[in-house]
Description:
This protein has 10 helices and 17 strands.
Amino acid sequence: MLVIQQLHYGATSRYxxxxxxEELELPEKLVEVSLGSMLNxxxxxFQPCEVEFAPPFPEKSTTDELLDLPxxxxxxxxxxxxxxxxxxxxxxxxxxxxxxxxxxxGIICAVRGAVxxxxxxxxxxLRIGPFPFHITxxxxxxxxxxxxxxxxxxxxxxxxxxxxxxxRLCNLVEKRVxxxxxxxxxxSIILWDGSLTAGVPGNPVNTVSQSLALARxxxxxxxxxxxxxxxxxxGWRITEIVSSHEPPCLLEIEDLPLSVSKTVxxxxxxxxxxxxxxxxSFRLDIDRSLRQEQAIVAVEKLLGNEILFQGYPETxxxxxxxxxxxxxxxxxxxxxxxxxYGLKLITRHNIRRTLFGPYxxxxxx
Length: 365
């Protein structure tokens, strides 16, 4: 049975949310940018995107094929972990986006964030959004600039696909949520979904650095979990290195010869972590400005104060669930926008389904 079925979660009223987060100033700016992007959408023709359900969960892969990996050679870099149960609050942040439809001049997508707060394993959550954005070639540079991306950063905004534009917008909103929480939470473990890599589209170096600095100023520790990674060592993914070790354990790979692009900035030290038996291994980035001892203690506090499902923090898992859009969410947003902005609904022939029938996919090509 899934952990979420064992616990009773309910929507948390604003006045019941932890006091540190009650002063969150994020939504005002997002509402301003969102409404500004929607000003020119009234009365336009609108083609809603078709709603599809997510595929079922895949089977957990076996680790039998890892027998050739020389795991003993990493023993000096391996740190066993001991849980520290001291009541440290755990805060998880995640943001998701989804395409709502298209107009004659651009796309409409929605972005929603979720902040989940775990105090002594009592979970509360706050949803931020959804915020609709009408993105066109004419306004997307301004939107990205207002959300923190330097327009002179050299990014080729004009040639990005709608999917890439949506992903970049989602990343920028996520950075704003992370920065706001870093400045309001205190003496907490803050969990991010992804890595602490900056300098790529949607992850400006100055924004990520500011968020980490605010977190340290308020005595927070930022841990970023990646469910997948392209980093490899000797042909193996770094997450496979600890698969055969006894958990909970932490493997520092800072000194391993990894292939990393010189154009990106690694603002966190990179580890591989496995927290539970029969659980998954994850790439874990920890704020580079923390001392080694502080980084290890932060992971041990997470281990002692958090519920772990398949080795993944429940706080971060719930943040993903509460930020993700369901089919009903999309239909509701489409209906609301059509009424609010007087959109003229149109349906276009789906040539992909005509050509490929049940083998049509949602991947653009």
